[in-house]
Structure formats: structure tokens, C-alpha cells
Amino acid sequence: MAATVRGLAVEEIAEIVECLLLGAASAEQHAPLLADRRRALADALGDALGELPARAPQ
């Protein structure tokens, strides 16, 4: 699966990752498969962020 995210800053995507992880934690008891999927999405986004080149200092 692939996703294209445009128009968001790195910080905003990092916030989405945090929200997915929080959502996974809250869903763990009643929907473990949903929690696993949210964690997988967060991991994939986090890995993609980690592969971005570092920003030049301003």
C-alpha cells in the first residue's frame, strides 16, 4: 500500500503518527486488529519520515 501526503509539514505528519499510536493504544482492548493496523500505519509513516533528507539550517 502507498500513500501520497502533500501540503503538510514534517511536524504535522509526526503529529499524525502520534495520533495513530494513541488511537492504537485506546483500541487495543476492544479492537486489537484495528490497533495493530494503526500501529503499522504509524510505523510506516515514521519510517518514511526517517528516510527524508535533513533540512538545511535557516
The residue ranges in which pLDDT falls below 50 over 5 or more consecutive positions are none
Order of helices and strands: HH
Structural class by secondary-structure content? mainly alpha
Radius of gyration: 13 Å
Largest sheet properties: none
Beta-strand percentage? Answer: under 5%
The pLDDT mean sits at 89
What's the helix count?
2
Describe what this molecule looks like in 3D:
The protein is built from 2 helices and no strands. 5% of the residues are buried. The model has no long low-confidence stretch (mean pLDDT 89). It has helices at residues 10-27, 32-51. The protein is elongated. Helix 1 packs antiparallel against helix 2 (32-51). The protein has 58 residues and is mainly α.
List key phrases describing it.
single chain, 58 residues, mainly alpha, elongated
Offer a quick outline of the entry.
The chain is built from 2 helices and no strands. The chain is mainly alpha-helical and 58 residues long.
Annotate the secondary structure layout.
Layout: H1 10-27, H2 32-51
Helix pairs in contact: 1-2
